[in-house]
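To whoever is covering the structure queue this week,

Two jobs came back overnight. Logging them here so there's a record in the thread.

Job A:
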Amino acid sequence: MKYLPVVSVAALLLAAAVPAQQTPVLKPVPTKPAEAGRGPAPQPVGPGADPAETPVQAAPLRLTMAGPALVAAKADVTLRLLIEVTEDSEVPAVLLNGIDLNVRVGGKDANPISRPGKGGPVALAAGTRIERQLTLPASAFMASPELTEMLVVAVSWKDQVGVDCTFKVAPDSSSVKLEDLDLAKTQVILVTNYGEMQLSFRPDKAPRHVENFVKLCLQGFYDGTKFHRVIKNFMIQGGCPNTKDDSKRAMWGSGGPGYRIDAEFNDLRHLKGTLSMARTSDPNSAGSGFFIVHKDAAHLDNQYSAFGNLVEGVDVLDAIANVAVGGPQRSTPQQPVVLEAAVVLPVAKK
């Protein structure tokens, strides 16, 4: 049986990796001073966007930097620096084996990260390509790894205009215990390939559903799943673990955590932005599937267990609800809508 909220017939009708290269040839070339590159102004990177790669259009080097979209506060951050030599030239040691990063956290200047290069400039021939992997602890970019909110970190290579990237650092939930959380104040950010949606919860109305959802988020259960059922002017539905596997497409919507939760119907109305639990025709069959209402749906009131609300990201909800769909019920996104991570913003009980 597939877990899904009922929709009326009328509602249904509304319906950086680098290319493989030969090993670079490093050979002596006539030396000349490295020119100070000045490329186009850096382009802004929006929240939730893919890692930015902004090349510097300057001779004799073309530099690109990229980072992850999201990392946990106690994990490592790996930045990729690609060096492409467009003219025979000398490359400073700091580019080859050092680090010289300016850092901004939450829009404010933070401590730069600098490690001098070893040795002097190295003469490289035109056509040489070097990719460096710079791995640093996420804590190196922050004052404290103990986060209770998502942080946006922007890094740029000093004196190289346009060589920059932005990533987000999420609170580390690996040591968070569900029983220690104030679930009325704890929130969750759903990080998707369309942006972010932030959720709050109503444990006073549906305590078991709130506990279950936050527990699954803490476990990383939802990470990598897809919003597999999208109906504009009705709702977007996700939470099925089978959606991680495209070969199980026929089973999308029928997976779960291996247990069921009894219904907690309540007086919360299914308005736009309401978070509610999907189920089969059996009222006591909820598991992991959930949906977010796109347009007021009074016919779902007291029929499905509403347990939270969207507090930020209505534009993302709208964007997902408007994706092109197909399939037998004209509700399957033609391009994947991926829930990349469900990030818990923990608030402890007092």
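Job B:
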Amino acid sequence: MQINISTTSRSIDADSDRVFQALTDPLMVASWRSPGNMKLSIMKYDAKANGPISYKFESKDPTRHETYKITGSFISVTRPQRIIAEEEIVTDITLLQGKTLIIYEVTYQAGTSQISVNRQGIPGGIDISCENGYWDYALTKMNDLLASRS
């Protein structure tokens, strides 16, 4: 079985404490992690070791009945530089099943934070280029969100 690994990095125009808040505040996460064509609803998001994660993506288009539920937990949370979580898509589709380890790392220098999101164990049915496109988009939305709150 192939283990799919991918990393997406981006500069964020905010200090590491604000980036950490964007990674751990459920309302902020819902705003920057939702793709443009989907709504993200967070049911549980307790950013502490062993804290639960549960959210779903739902299509904004009423003619498409797409819903993806994600569950998991935080493994470790080290303020403000590192978060490790494990997530999986709840589905009957075998190619989308499997746990993905997500490691968020934040560094800060000269007024800008650098965030790196490493994903390990991405299910084989997920196209890596689409996965990377999603994370590029999401981190750009995070940057825009934090810029609007400065």
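Note for Job B: The two ends are 45 Å apart (CA to CA).

Please reply-all if you pick these up so we don't duplicate work.
Q.
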